[in-house]
Amino acid sequence: MTRILILGGGGMIGQKLAHHLAKDGWEGQPAEVILHDVAFAPGGAEAAQRIAGSLTEVGAAEKLAALRPDVIFHLASIVSGEAEQDFDKGWDVNMFPTWNLLSALRAERENSGDTYWPRLVFSSSIAVFGAPFPEKIGDEFLTAPLTSYGAQKACCELMVSDFSRKGFVDGVSIRLPTICVRPGKPNKAASGFFSGIIREPLNGQDAILPVPDTVRHLHASPRSAVGFLMRAGTMDLDPLGARRNLNMPGVSCTIAEQIEALRVVAGADAVARIRSEPDADITKIVSGWPRDFETARAQELGFVAETDFADIIRTYIAEDLTPA
């Protein structure tokens, strides 16, 4: 039975991935799923084990590596806004534990006589890119982040690539678009308003828009994010060669187009709940983010996402909207 470790398994995407594995298994077979996170909400997805703790704790990486999972999904991090506000915490949570984890997995491989060779899927971000950039970023564009969060993700990508090059792990980094519409309460992500201006009106609540509606950004649904992870976890990585980083597909649209999609799906009353309140700090962060991507490489490898923002809204309504 395939043993799968989900780091950040208590979070939204981790829980959706665990639900998917409980329902559909791993390549058609049941899987042993281990969730690790600082805390878990009551109930939640099925799992063989739930391990509460932080990857920042001394010895945490070694204990997890000693479980010798066949596949590791590394989703654990603090969000962009928090990483920008608390410089030390961002690096302590988002970068250093990844080095510790990779080093622990390397040690397990050596202890096994090189028979243990886990697949590691690292959830990176389009925040690894920074302005100036073309209107559509291609697969050859350089990473030059303009936020601490983006810098931390870029460092982890390099580590995953180098440990894979040396044969210590079989790793790949997937650069996720902004995942929207996120269920639940707002978090500290600078991108949180992209979900908030859809989620709150659909739940009968007012929403704040802190940036101009001309801002263009790339989005994918939580359902697509799970699909990305599963594809990255099961695919043959040899076609990637030494380039172990992939830009994921998504829907590029302006906020005005998001709002129009909300009008089409839910009507004018929902749109009327959005209120503009400019925030200079968030606007500054968002202005350094990419707007659109050419993702031919990922699409050729079988990664798929929505092509219309209205479909993203409908996915949220179908899967996560709590009936009034």
Produce the secondary structure layout.
Layout: E1 2-7, H1 12-24, E2 31-37, E3 49-52, H2 60-65, E4 71-74, H3 80-85, H4 87-94, H5 96-111, E5 119-125, H6 148-165, E6 170-176, E7 178-179, H7 192-202, E8 207-209, E9 216-220, H8 222-234, E10 245-247, E11 251-254, H9 255-266, H10 268-271, E12 274-276, H11 280-287, H12 296-300, H13 309-319
Parallel strand pairs: 1-2, 1-4, 2-3, 4-5, 5-6, 6-10, 7-9, 8-12
Antiparallel strand pairs: 9-11
Helix pairs in contact: 1-8, 4-6, 5-6, 7-9, 9-13
Q: How would you describe the overall organization of this protein?
A:
This protein has 324 residues and is of the alpha/beta class. The chain has 13 helices and 12 strands. It has helices at residues 12-24, 60-65, 80-85, 87-94, 96-111, 148-165, 192-202, 222-234, 255-266, 268-271, 280-287, 296-300, 309-319, and strands spanning 2-7, 31-37, 49-52, 71-74, 119-125, 170-176, 178-179, 207-209, 216-220, 245-247, 251-254, 274-276. It has a 7-stranded parallel β-sheet with strand order 3-2-1-4-5-6-10, sandwiched between helices. The radius of gyration is 19 Å and the shape is globular. The relative contact order is 0.13.
The secondary structure category is alpha/beta
Task: Specify the overall morphology.
Answer: globular
Enumerate how many helices there are, as a single number.
13
Q: What is the string of SSEs from the N terminus onward?
A: EHEEHEHHHEHEEHEEHEEHHEHHH
Strand order, largest beta sheet: 3-2-1-4-5-6-10
Number of strands: 12
Mean pLDDT: 95
Give a quick account of the main beta sheet: strands, pairing sense, barrel closure: 7 strands, parallel
Q: Which regions have little confidence, pLDDT < 50, spanning 5+ residues?
A: none
**Strand percent estimate:** 15-25%
Radius of gyration equals 19 Å
Q: How far from one another are the termini?
A: 41 Å
Percentage of residues assigned to helices: 40-55%
